[in-house]
Amino acid sequence: MADWTENPFSNAPNDDAKGAEAFDDPSIAAASTEVPEYNPFDGTPAPDGSTVSDGSDAPPTWASKSAAPEKKAKGAAKNAVKPQKKDKVSKEEEDRLNTYAANENNAEQGNKDPNYRPANWPPFPGFCKWPCHACFHHDFRGEIPDWGYTTLKRTYQMWLFYFLVLFWNMIACFASLGCESCDNGGSQAGFSVLWFFIFSPASYMCWFQPLYQAMRKDSSLRFGWFFLNAGIQFCFGVVATVGIEGSGHAGFLSAFIALGSSDGDDKVIGILMITSATLWLIFTLYTGYIIQRVLQLYRSTGQSLDKAQNEAVVGAVSSKAGRSAVKGAVKASL
User: Measured between alpha carbons, how far is residue 138 from residues 121, 151, 221, 314, 315 in Å?
Assistant: First the structure.
């Protein structure tokens, strides 16, 4: 056991020095003298000529660590722009989807409600906003029977002609402001503007739409509304054709007063009023023709006053039942 306490690598002789004789080889000894011992921590040059820094020239560790957050911050800023673009795209996509959903809802409503009719008149472009949008539904071929199609189309043309008559009447009445022989030129022009903006939509609602719905639904009550309003329109046309001064109608009476003047300008204004009075006369005669034509259809289709009265009674009862149902629902909710 004492033999194991000795250093086997020492050159001291001992009884078993055979293992140490291997390190006395000349090649090993030469290598140990040629290659100096190198300590990497004392700052001396490395054996291959390169130098090893002691760390004094290296940047502080906190700077290298702070560079990474800056890069991360720049990366986060770049990424912050991307979600905005995505949000913009998603908003456009959302608007498109909302429009599509609205169209689908309209289609579903049309499928669920048999009375659903999308508005298509007046035919404003799709990009127009309120109040320039379609308010009524027109489908002459699809909703009007053959026996009433021609008459209804002529009635619609009569309404368009009435719009033109009111517009030209307004121009003639404004021209009367320069007529020296015409009295009440201011009231004449003012009333003409009032008639144009009131009677243009009112005539459509009062006698064209009732006739359209009467033929579409075969309703005697709506035929009655048409006859009432169209009769009033005929009387109004007669008054406008006469053209009382100050009434807002450039009729024959106002035109003859202007033509009787010795002033040449008044005569020109009188000729303009004659054209307006002629348009009023044509419209009035055409209104009488349409009333007579609709009356023939009314009798030929089996409509009668008794049927109109029955429809009025049924409508009143149904509306009363609807109001009572609404009141009951409100009371139940309270």
Answer: 6, 15, 20, 26, 24
* Sequence-distant contacts of 16-22: CB under 8 A, at least 24 apart: none
- Name the pTM for this structure: 0.61
Token pair in block for residue 118: 């999308």
**CB distance 155 to 211 below 8 Å:** yes
* Domain ranges across the chain: 146-301
Q: Are 138 and 149 in contact (CB under 8 A)?
A: no
- 218-253 per-position pLDDT tens digit: 888 899 999 999 999 999 999 999 998 888 999 999
Which tokens hold the place of 290?
């349409």
Neighbours of 12 (CB within 10 A): 8
Q: 62-75: per-residue pLDDT in tens? A: 444 444 555 555 55
- Residue 156 · residue 121 · CB < 8 Å: no
**Side chain identity at residue 306, one-letter code:** D
